[in-house]
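Dissemination and training. As part of the outreach component of the grant, students in the summer workshop were shown how a complex can be specified as a set of sequence lines and then modelled as a single object. The example used during the hands-on session is reproduced here so that future cohorts can follow it. Participants entered these lines:
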Amino acid sequence: MKNWPLFEIFIRSKNGLDHRHVGSLHAADAEMAIENARDVYTRRMEGVSIWVVESKNITASDPSEAEALFEPAMDKIYRHPTFYDLPDELKHM
Amino acid sequence: MTIEELERKFQDRIDAEEKIEAKDWMPEEYRKTLIRQISQHAHSEVVGMLPEGNWVTRAPNLKRKAILLAKIQDEAGHGLYLYSAAETLGVERDSLIDDLHSGKAKYSSIFNYPAISWADMGAIGWLVDGAAIMNQVALCRTSYGPYARAMVRICKEESFHQRQGYDILLSLSRGNAAQKRMCQDAINRWWWPSLMMFGPNDAHSPHSAQSMKWKIKRVSNDELRQRFVDMTVPQCEILGMKLPDDKLKWNPERGHYDFGEIDWSEFNNVLKGNGPCNKERLADRLNAHLDGAWVREAAMAHSEKRARRTA
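and obtained this result:
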């Protein structure tokens, strides 16, 4: 028999925080993926909310193209507040 | 880029303590080593449930039973974290499990020893899980990201395992004469196999050098074993029990405990499949898998039927 489909699991550890990727598991469907994620990833009160998504539905960037993808941000250091040289008298900004 | 350039760049990343992630380029041998090591580790978690399953219905009270169940459930979870980490390297779960069942893949030899008394649940938690933790803490810094993250999660949960084992032995060590004997007997039987868990001496460890270079492995077998001995001796003193090694002695010059030579012929014999429980463990594992086949099939059929209805 074929493997059950693979799901990626995201858990919100408490309200106010983002869902975070915690791992993956196989399940027959999304509902079972949530039940299994509850058993596997929240046995010690690690979560208040679970998202599951079938792994095949995730499109990921290609690591070998990381340079082309992220480098344009490197030469725009004026986007950081520390770029600006301000007078010492200026205490708060 | 040529393969040499790619390999050099890869090693540079490793040397700079960068983590390697699933889709990054990696040498084929790095991938193979990881699949072998991670799946072996996963199989050990899964087979490790079997000696303990023996005691669920015979735990001395409800509290101990609930704790043992929780520990076994953790181990199933640890197996899953590890299988998932292995799958990120492009292998199918089923093929990993087939390799376990066919005997092609190994699991930790420690689980080929029988758990014949309740005190064994204590000794397994304290010594076997203790040795495993020693190894796993070092692996939290392994170079492959998904493996390292699985290890962090596992280590968080494992310390409960070791404590519950020690707690069982502590109770027995404070009990009547028969309970004390039981405690000492379990320690006698599990001590040497636990030391063997760290694998062959560094001089005889075939894969170690390359694994250390790739930072899959961060600390050598002998060093981890020494750390384990140093940590365990004082814990045993608190139990008022004796570790079964006449050569065990504090060495002030080294700042470590000296200990006796491991019987590697026993280790190799168990590894070859001739341990007390090799056949039983594999048969139990295979039966559990086959007995569960109809559940897996039914769940899939159910989900397909529902998908058709909503389509």
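Chain B has a mean pLDDT of 95. Students were then asked to discuss how this feature might be tested experimentally.
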